[in-house]
Design goal:
- By secondary structure, this protein is mostly helical.
- Helices cover 54% and strands 6% of the residues.
- It folds into 3 domains: 12-96, no CATH class; 107-184 and 280-299, Orthogonal Bundle (Cytochrome Bc1 Complex, Chain D, domain 2), CATH 1.10.760; 187-279, Cytochrome Bc1 Complex, Chain D, domain 2.
- It has helices at 12-38, 64-83, 98-118, 125-129, 132-145, 147-150, 174-183, 200-213, 220-233, 235-238, 264-273, 283-286, 288-299, 310-325; strands spanning 46-51, 55-58, 185-189, 275-279.
- The protein has a two-stranded antiparallel sheet. A two-stranded antiparallel ribbon has the order 3-4.
Length: 326
């Protein structure tokens, strides 16, 4: 292990403390062995310890082969501490570190496997998603880096989105998925359960109104009162029709997809206290080629959104230009 003392310990005392403790322990073991080996022993001498009136403990020295095995261990420890880290800030004559070994292994792996990943980098995401070899490589990447949150089948879990349906916060096109994997996302729901926003009863009323929009059970009287509160309390993010703006990270409240759960108590808690949900960034860690493969795999799970066709985007512009000419 790399026992290098960093800025956590700004005093040089701790460096010296570690060196003294380690060396005293190792050398002390050697001295203790020497003392045991040089002690005088009389053949047949007993220590006075008797068990069951028949078993006596003799004061015999350790076998020489046993003592020398321990001596070799002590010598090995001293040689190791001279070559590798173990004595405070002293890095050892080899200058080995865990980080250095990791970076060397990663460099070797990149040289070996990098071309395998890079062969798909210049291909369109949808073409990569249709390639069986790329799909298998993307699946292995997903199981390694994504399954812990989204599940091995990408079906998600409470607070971790299902990647197989068509409900996408921040967008489900290849470009948006790649953007999410590369830079991560931070979803924030601001708390509304404190003044001057809403009191507990008003929060409950708004929750019942929102529940009614997606067909969940709700109290009719509270629905009416919540409908009056929703425009000033929630419409700024979720829109006056509560359909949200998924591209900007504001969920649609009228469908049946509830990322954090559809239980009334949970919804009241979220509206009252707010919520933060983070998707970590993987761009710097994985690199462009692996992110491209992961994007293709996730997009190809079934819920990905096709990018707008260039012709469809250009048609309104052409029609507008033609209308101006007329």
């Amino acid at each position: 292990m790399d026992f290098k003392i960093t800025s956590d310990f700004v005093s040089g005392f701790w460096n010296l403390y570690v060196i003294v403790i380690v060396l005293a322990s190792v050398i002390g073991c050697g001295i203790f062995l020497w003392m045991q080996g040089s002690a005088k022993h009389k053949p047949g001498e007993v220590t006075g310890h008797v068990w069951d009136e028949t078993l006596e403990e003799y004061s015999n020295p350790l076998p020489s082969w046993w003592r020398w095995m321990f001596y070799i261990t002590v010598i090995f420890a001293l040689v190791y501490l001279a070559l590798y880290p173990g004595l405070g800030n002293f890095a050892g004559s080899f200058g080995w570190t865990m980080r250095g070994q990791y970076e060397a292994e990663m460099k070797t792996a990149e040289e070996k496997y990098g071309p395998k990943f890079n062969q798909f980098l210049k291909q369109d995401v949808m073409a990569v998603a249709a390639n069986q070899e790329a799909k298998e490589m993307g699946q292995r990447l997903f199981q390694t880096y994504c399954a812990q949150c989204h599940g091995g089948d990408a079906g998600g879990a409470p607070s971790f989105p299902n990647l197989k349906d068509g409900d996408w916060l921040w967008g489900g096109t290849p470009e948006k998925i790649k953007e999410t994997i590369t830079g991560g996302r931070m979803g924030v729901m601001t708390p509304k359960g404190t003044k001057p926003d809403m009191d507990a009863e008003q929060v409950r009323n708004v929750v019942h109104y929102v529940r009614s929009l997606s067909g969940l059970t709700a109290d009719s009287a509270r629905i009416q009162r919540g409908a009056e509160l929703f425009p000033q309390a929630c419409a700024a993010c979720h829109g006056p029709d509560a359909k949200g703006n998924p591209e900007a990270g504001y969920p649609n409240l009228t469908d049946k997809v509830w990322l954090h759960g559809s239980a009334e108590a949970k919804q009241i808690e979220i509206v009252t206290k707010g919520m933060q949900n983070q998707m970590p960034a993987f761009g710097d860690f994985l690199g462009e080629a692996k992110v491209h493969l992961l994007t293709a795999y996730v997009w190809g799970l079934g819920g990905g959104v096709k990018p707008a066709a260039p012709e469809a985007a250009a048609a309104p512009v052409a029609e507008a230009a033609e209308a101006e000419q007329k």
